[in-house]
User: Fold TetR/AcrR family transcriptional regulator from Pseudonocardia hispaniensis.
Amino acid sequence: MATRLTRTEQVERNRELVLGAARRIFLERGYTGATLEAIAEAAGFSKGVVYSQFGGKPDLFLALLKRRSTERAAENAAIAAAHAGLEGLRELLRTNLRRTEQGRDWAHVLMEFRVAATRDPELNRRYAELHNHTMERFAEAVQDVLARGGLATVHPPRLFAELIFSLDAGHVLEQAAGTAQAAPADLDLLVTRLVEPL
Assistant:
């Protein structure tokens, strides 16, 4: 006999189903093309159920982005704990690059969302808060892995993280345009010039 879910378990299960459907629809249709109707249908719910979990499409996207950020921060912390110095930094950067390459469709949707957010001050504030937290966590991982190797970034760690994120976003756009020429070896060369002994 199947065990009935508690109300809390049912709400959490529904939330996970909606988030999974939202991710699929965002990847298929892009941020602008995705609709709450399509997400609700893909999750097997009414639009009302989606609204009971999330205030709208931006809330759904930010929830997915927050989850992704949390997962990446945990992975980065694990890498930083297992490595040290310049090789550890390279491993962090290689992992970041691999994630971007494997999730290129997500990177495109994120770019689309970021442009939409610039036209909505409150949404842009919410995104900036999450993005800033993501960069700070990355900066912490970088600082940790370098310090254990007797190194530090030439610039403050938060600025270093912003430079890396900007390079990543720019590279995604260059790849989308078919004009990308930078290779991982170029990033390695650049990064070695951005660290110094403690």
Strands lie at 151-153, 195-197. Residues 81 and 197 are 19 Å apart (CA to CA). Residues 57-197 form a domain with the Tetracycline Repressor; domain 2 fold (CATH 1.10.357.10).
